[in-house]
Amino acid sequence: MTSQVRGVQLARLLGQWHALPGRRRSPDYAALAGAVRGLLADGRLPLGVRLPAERELAEALKISRTTVTAAYRELRESGHLASRRGAGSWTMLPGTHRVASTGLWTPLDDRDMIDLGVAALAAPPELLPAARAAAEDLPRYLGGAGYHPTGIIELREAVAHAYTDRGLPTSPDQIMVTNGTQHALDLVLRLALAPGGHVLVEAPSYPNALAALAARRARITTHGLAVEEPGWDADLLLGGLRQARPKLAYLIPDFQNPTGHLMPAALRERVVATAHAVGTDLVVDESFVDLPLDGTVLPPPTASFDRHSRVITIGGMSKPFWGGLRIGWVRASAPQVQRLAAARVGVDMASPVLDQLVAVHLLADAPAIVAARRAQLTAQRDALLAALAQRLPEWRVTVPHGGVTLWAELDGPISSALARAAEEVGVRLAPGPRFGLDGTLERFLRLPFTLPAADLVEAVGRIAAVRYDLDRGGRSQWREPAVIA
User: Fold this and answer.
1) Contacts of 281 (CB under 8 A, 6+ apart)
2) Which of 28, 203, 288, 358 could be stapled to 255 by a disulfide with Cβ–Cβ 3.0 to 4.6 Å?
3) Cα separation of 164 and 433, whole Å?
4) Nearest Cα to 207, choosing from 323, 104, 98, 322?
5) Computed over its alpha carbons, how large is the radius of gyration of the chain?
6) Is 337 in contact with 150 (CB distance < 8 Å)?
7) Residues in Cβ contact with 303 at an 8 Å cutoff, skipping those fewer than 6 apart
8) How do residues 18-40 score in pLDDT, each as one tens digit?
9) Is residue 276 predicted with pLDDT exceeding 90?
10) Predicted pLDDT of residue 107
11) Separation CA 174–CA 168 (nearest Å)
12) How many CA atoms lie within 13 A of 117 on its CB side?
């Protein structure tokens, strides 16, 4: 079923769309068409969505139907709208081109490169002592085969205890340990989504999740996020679930990647209730849940509103601890965990026991480790914000109160071109289109604040230099693309 946006919803998205007054004022229909094109380019209005009828939109905008008719005609002529008599009009991009996320790439080994493509911290100092302690614990496991499809009991107990402390009672039988959060998502998709299944995701979203969905040949419906808080439009999100009735919805409610938005508790409850009503399973990615900043109080876990086993939560240790420790997990009902474990046997059998023991010791010290991480990230975020305000004041950035990334709205649709130019001066960037579908989001750039403050300030200086020379620069040479994580 094709998703549809109502007149009042589109009017709210358009905001102040009217043509500016002046001697060279453009017609209102041209301004309206341009505003719709801007929503499409920024990913706030999904592709393939049916627009309201001309009369309905005219009433919502309080303008003449003639103006809407002319705007729709201009959108059809520019390739942004397809219409069929009696069936309506659907959004599209010129040439119906599609630019899909290509997933994880191998970076160049260049020590002089400031890599802002990877949103992850270096290992904490507590890692080495944890590894030594894990090696001392290992002998008691050496008498067995070493295969634990759901994970060793000590780690499942530790993860379950962490959920319980957050107000979500959890038993070890509800936890399956995986080789990172991405592995957890892949296993969930193998179990819950048939090839070609329908999935709702946020736009923008995590590139490697989009790649995993592409591998399942999923049909994707997007919900566009606003730059400003709270990000999610409750009316559009819930309406999209009711209309599309997807098999799955993949959401990042806790410091969304890449925008940093935090979903309010009331919307979490409504999303879970709506998902149950329409038969949609929710896959909730909590990769950044341990990293609130500025004393931000977290809402209850999304799964705490679940009474019907509709919410599958995935998380891991990559963001608060270290990406090189490939430990993630799935929290679901005990029967779902058993089905996941059965599916896993045909993939990789189990996670390494030694890595799991390291994770057990790190989680035992989690309060101190995570507190230090939050202080580090706060200082680095503020340094990045100050550098952007000084060197690139035209860019618009909403300050995130958690997570590890800024989502910057640029002063033009230049994200990919800027990334190529920055590569020439030793800065690796993740351009906006990597976080969406179909070539949208060229006005945006994700900037992680996981590197030391001095590196971030230096990176912004280099980016500013190539930004101001971008229109006059020569043709850039293509390089190997970067890891996006």
Assistant:
1) 192, 247, 248, 249, 275, 310, 311, 312
2) 288
3) 38
4) 104
5) 23
6) yes
7) 168, 284, 311, 313, 331
8) 765 654 567 888 889 888 888 88
9) yes
10) 44
11) 12
12) 28
C-alpha–C-alpha distance, residues 300 and 272, integer Å: 13
Task: Classify the C-alpha dihedral 232-235-240-242 as positive or negative.
Answer: positive
Q: How far apart are CA 74 and CA 35, in angstroms?
A: 12
Give the Cα separation of 70 and 76 in Å (integer).
Answer: 10
Mean pLDDT computed over every residue of the chain: 89
Per-residue tokens: 441: 């989001």
pTM for this prediction: 0.82
How far, in Å, are 141, 268, 485 from residue 265 at the CA level? 42, 5, 27
Structure tokens at 416: 């990919």
Closest CA to 219 of 244, 190, 183, 185: 244
Q: What would the two tokens of residue 390 be?
A: 């000084």
Mapping DSSP onto H, E and C, the string for the chain reads CCCECCHHHHHHHHCCCCCCCCCCCCCHHHHHHHHHHHHHHCCCCCCCCECCCHHHHHHHHCCCHHHHHHHHHHHHHCCCEEEECCCEEEECCHHHCCCCCCCCCCCCCCCCCEECCCCCCCCCCCHHHHHHHHHHHHHHHCCCCCCCCCCCHHHHHHHHHHHHHCCCCCCHHHEEEECCHHHHHHHHHHHHCCCCCEEEEEECCCHHHHHHHHHCCCEEEEEECCCCCCCCCHHHHHHHHHHHCCCEEEECCECCCCCCCECCHHHHHHHHHHHHHHCCEEEEECCCCCCECCCCCCCCCHHHHCCCCCEEEEEECCCCCCCCCCCEEEECCHHHHHHHHHHHCCCCCCCCHHHHHHHHHHHHCHHHHHHHHHHHHHHHHHHHHHHHHHHCCCCEECCCCECCEEEEECCCCCHHHHHHHHHHCCEECEEHHHHCCCCCCCCEEEEECCCCHHHHHHHHHHHHHHHHHHHHCCCCCCCCCCCCC
Nearest to 91 by CA among 79, 78, 81: 81
The residue behind tokens 């997807």 is 246
pLDDT at 274 over 70: yes
Q: Are 316 and 291 in contact (CB under 8 A)?
A: no
The tokens for 168 are: 């979500």
Q: How far apart are CA 150 and CA 342, in angstroms?
A: 9
In terms of Cα–Cα distance, which of 317, 239, 260, 314 is closest to 282? Answer: 314
What the block records as the tokens of 26 is 């453009």
The two structure tokens encoding residue 27: 């017609």
Instruction: Find where tokens 């080495």 sit.
Output: 128
Structure tokens at 270: 């409504």
